[in-house]
Design goal:
By secondary structure, this protein is α/β, with parallel strands linked by helices. It is built from nine helices and 13 strands. The strands form three sheets. The protein has a seven-stranded mixed beta sheet, sandwiched between helices. Strands 3-4-5-6 form a four-stranded antiparallel beta sheet, with helices on one face. The chain has a two-stranded antiparallel sheet with strand order 1-2. The radius of gyration is 18 Å and the shape is globular.
Amino acid sequence: MKHPSFHVPLAADVGLAFEPKVRLTEEHSAYQRITIEHTSTFGRLYRLDGDLMASEADEFIIHESLAHLPALAHPNPRSALILGGGDGATARELLKHPGIERIVVAELDPEVVRLVGQFIPALPARSFDSPRVCLQIGDAAKSLRQLYARGERFDLILFDLTATDDPACAHLHHEEFMRLCAASLNAGGIIHVQLGSPFYQAEQTVALWQRMRGIFAGLRPAFISVPSYGGPWLLARACISTIDDPSSAGLYARLAERAITDLRHYNPDLHHACQVLPNHLRQLLA
């Protein structure tokens, strides 16, 4: 049986075309349409309202970058908050750091957790079974306000969210929420945000970078390539004070101290290299 192809939009006039071998499930939750399919090139993948979130073939690129760039830059992270992250993959990566005692995953939709866990179990890799992981269902802004009111502060806050212009999470990129994130960091804490595609989403990428620049003293980019996201992708790592990354040798030492060996993308040399931007991106973010 031939399954209908689908397009993942990158811009108004550009998209990636996929021809799935199997549609494993498609369900409408209270918030969105969740589709899980199998393709020859990307393996199993899931989409939310048509937008591709992660695929088996290349998810390690974004999730290792999102988690390990800040976690290894921090000398001793003990607490982390993941905004979104219902597929469990970012929590999976953070659990590789033995010193992290508490990981809160603030996910809007419990059906994402259930369906990804059922159909793409390699993404969460049973991370939600860990006693170190606390899954908090509900709007992430409301969850963080509650955590802040209870006095919880975090060493790491990671944005594992859909596009910044998506109605479900646009408010999580506004200045007010960014300032709440800043206030929710421990001393030396790091926030890590996905800016998006600097080619296909240049306007929103620049707007979010400049918004963060107005709040955080320390701000570092990371330029990576994610095939299922259309290629070039930018992240921004920020701190209330300046960010002082260890040398590559220092980062290798931290990997050894934490006994982290099973990484497919991240390494300390890349940690520094991905912060070096080509001229056109320097100009874009200037």
